[in-house]
Amino acid sequence: MLLPEIAKQEIWRAKGFGSIYEYAAKLAGMTHDKVNECLRIMKHIEDKPELLKVAEEKGLGAVKPVATIATQETAGFWAEKARIMSKNTLEVYTRDVRPRKEQEQEVKVKLNPKLAKRFEEFKKRADFESLLEKLMDDVETESKPEPVKTDAPYIPSEIKKHVINKTNGLCAHPGCNKPAVNFHHTKRFSLDKEHDPDAIVPLCKAHHDIAHHGLIENEEKQPYEWILRTEPDKTNPKYEIDKMVRKYSLC
Fold it and tell me: Which of 67, 119, 158, 209 is 20 to 30 A from 45 (CA-CA)?
């Protein structure tokens, strides 16, 4: 936090060092790149008191993900997010929350040679997309475990297996290919006391944190329909549950 002022006043020179880099290396063990990073972040937030305050409380790393995208008008918003989110969660949130233009996408999949040839022919059909959508709908509604009503928070192994198989062990959030580490109840188990395979999704830590910040607007729909919101719905009963989950995760 002091480096910009030290550099500006050339305190390093007064102390007998050859440069700000030598000064920081000898007194704080900082590398050349780390010095540049700190100076860069401070330059971006020097006119944003809300972010400066968070940096003083949590360190420059806490505001690094938003330093270049925050404006004076949005600094308060991003400061609040930097204060309550971990650096990793904030990095993922800033990436995912930006609106994306809906457009056709090219999807690449690896198939064995025989199946690849069949698929290339299948794509020529005029009703290709509708047939593919029907196939996916059929797979989603195929035989699955029944929901389990219980006071026990432990998810039955049969339901766990079904849920994890749907994404092959990866996070269910759109565009995320990180390993799933949490089984997330989109309807909150504390409220419904039910393990419903249709309402449990595997998530990586960052997207699980985002969910419990109440920032997924329509999380009870399929993950490909999820939209991130900027603020949680404080009138939703989930909000109080999510606050307890976040508090527990910090213990």
Answer: 209
Helix axis angle, 87-97 to 75-84, nearest 10°:
140
Domain residues for 78? 3-84
Phi, psi torsion values for 184, nearest 5 degrees: -100, 125
Please tell me the distance from the alpha carbon of residue 72 to that of residue 70, in angstroms, as a whole number: 7
Residues 192 and 75: beta-carbon distance below 8 Å: no
Residue 205 lies in a domain: yes
| Helix axis angle, 49-58 to 75-84, nearest 10° | 20
| Domain end residue (candidates: 68, 84, 100) | 84
In DSSP terms, which residues pair with 184 in a beta bridge?
201
pTM of the model: 0.81
Distances (CA, A) of 99 to 109, 151, 232: 26, 39, 17
Structure tokens at 31: 């590398």
Residue 242 has pLDDT above 70, yes or no: yes
What confidence tens digit (pLDDT) does each residue in 117-136 have? 999 999 999 999 999 989 88
Average pLDDT over the chain, rounded to an integer = 91
CB 86 within 8 A of CB 209: yes
- DSSP state, residue 223: G
For residues 69 and 154, membership in a common domain is answered with no
SS3 assignment, position 7: helix
Q: Is residue 118 a part of any domain in this protein?
A: no
- Give the whole-angstrom CA distance, residue 160 versus residue 148: 12
Q: Residue 116 domain-assigned?
A: no
